[in-house]
Structures are given as structure tokens and as C-alpha cells.
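The protein record quoted in full:

***
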Amino acid sequence: MPRDDRNYRYATPALVQAILTHQLALIDADPSLAHQLPPLMLWGPPGVGKSTILRELCARKGIDFIDVRLSQREPVDLRGLPVPKGDAVDWLLSSDWPRDPASRGIILFDEITAADRALQVAAYELILDRSLGKLYSLPNGWLIVAAGNRSEDRAVAQTFSSALANRFCHLDVQADLESWCAWAAARSLHPDVIAFVRFRPEAFFCMDGAVEQGWPSPRSWTRVARTLEHAQPALDEHSVALLIQGLVGAPAATEFLAFRRWARTLPDIPAMLRGTHPIEIPERADQRYAFCSALAHHLWKGPSNQQQKRLERFFQISQALSSDFATLALLDALANDDDTERERRHQALLCHPAFEHWTQTHGSVFGRHLAAQP
């Protein structure tokens, strides 16, 4: 039998979204399955995007999302407030919990490992039984997910009781470079950041040094990209460098800023796409990463009446690249978070007359990348 080298120990953010999408489809088809599907427990270090995965999935599906930070709650916030009523006790339930039987969404019990045991116990009943005694039942259209850090992540982490642990389906979420780059390209984040972490994957996520201040993670690189988008021309280079260092730490910031200095020596890519500058492919590997990210970024910029010219030049330029870099550029150019825009880009690129010739040169590498996606 062929050897299967895939690592089943960890789940990428893209795989977590795929699993949750499957569970949502199951309860859409048969709401009674909500009581049979095990709630997911997402384990992972800070900054890998555990809560972002859920928030963006809910936004894309048009369903509700409730983020319950257990470490900031009291047990009464979950169970409700007892109120005397004659010789009995009534309960005022939290307004957080959904009441509409037809509603759909995901409840995230975030930072569950940072909550003390009393809070974990208060959450047991809702997580395990989807109810609070006879007071409240969670509508069938809702999934329950929890998230927290492991003890080795150097974050606050309480242990689970065996009863709670055994009810969850546990997934270890790992920072994944390819997933993040696709996510970042779909949101048009600054191409220098995407290019750098591809060139230096070791700098994408690193908790080896001091983590009391900034350190590299998907979250912090996202903030670097947004800082670059909004900082200039309001801030000078020194101020921008300080902000980057504050986000990812001195070692990663030093490397990234050196990478940006080399990236600035690239030819004029917008002019190259317009056809007013000759095609020039950088020799250095770091510059090629920056070149490909910028090529995809600028393809969709500029006047719409020049779009066809830019598409033609995009294929001409990428034909001059090696297959791995040409594939990176095309995948980034295809990515977009909006379904309608993503379909438009697929139509424009994959149905372009030059795409067939492009696949004769780069198709095998492009096909491998597509097959590797979840």
C-alpha cells in the first residue's frame, strides 16, 4: 500500500472551517442531530486565529455568533440570577442565550482553559446537555465550540475534568502558512507581509524567545499588514519600524524591514501590467516572493477599462516565472473573501485564452497546489 505521510495530529484553520461547515450542513438537514454531534474543543497557542475561524465562518454563512469569554464571567452569568418568587425561586437568564427556535449560529466558549474550575462547572450543563435544567434549552440550529490554550503555550491553562474532556471532540489547531497566505491574499493585505512569511516561513510563528512582548504569529503579522496600509504617509519610517517591532519582536522585525528594503528595488509592477515597462524578473529569491505577491495585488487595481490588458500582461509575466512562483502569483490573484468577486476572478483568469498555454508550462505544479487544499 502507498505510504500516507499526512499528519493527522494537527488541524489547520482551513480544516477546522471545513469540519464546522459539515456539522452546520448536518443540522440544517436534520436539526435533531444537534444533540448527537460532539462539541468541538479547539486547542492551540495564542495568535493562531481560533476565534477568527468561527467569527468569519458565521459571517460568511449569515448566521449568528456568540463569543463567551469564560475567564471574564461569573457562574451566575451562565446559570442565571435567582430571584425570590413567593415561597419559590425564579431565575433571570442571561440575555446572551438565543431564544428563537429557528435561529442558527455558533456559541464559542473562548478561553475556557483560563477559567477557574467553578466557571468550567457552570458551563458543563450547557456544553454537555445543551440546556440549563428545565430553565432553558439551546435551539437545535446552534453548534457549541470551546477554545483554549495548552499548558505548553505559556498562557493561563487550567486542566479539564475527565467528564468534560470526554464529551468534546478535541482538535489541535496549528498555525498554517499556506492557509494564512490564502486568507491574507483574499483580503488584499499588504503584499510585502505575505511575501516575507513565504520567504521566511520560520518567522511566521515563533514562540522560542521572550513572549511577554511582541512575537510572530498569524495575528501579529495581520496587524503588521494593516499597520503598513494605514501608517504612510502619516508616519515616518522610524515610527513604522517601531510599530512593527512592537508587534512581532525585534528579530522578526529586523528581518522583515531588510526584506522590505530589497522589495523596494523591484521594477515598477503596475507599469509592467499596463505594458509601459518591459518584463523584468528579479534574480534574488526574496525579491521573487515580493514580486509575485505584488503582481497579484496590483492585477485588480486600476481602471476597469484596462483590466483586459492587465490580464494579458499577467499571463505574459507569469510565463517568464518558474512554475512554483507562477503558481503562487495565480493562487493569490484568484483569492477573494467575497463569493461574487471570487467567482469573477476565477472566470476572468481560468477562462482567459492565455490560461491554456499557461497550464502547459505550469499546470502540474498548479494542480498539486489545488489538490492539497481542503
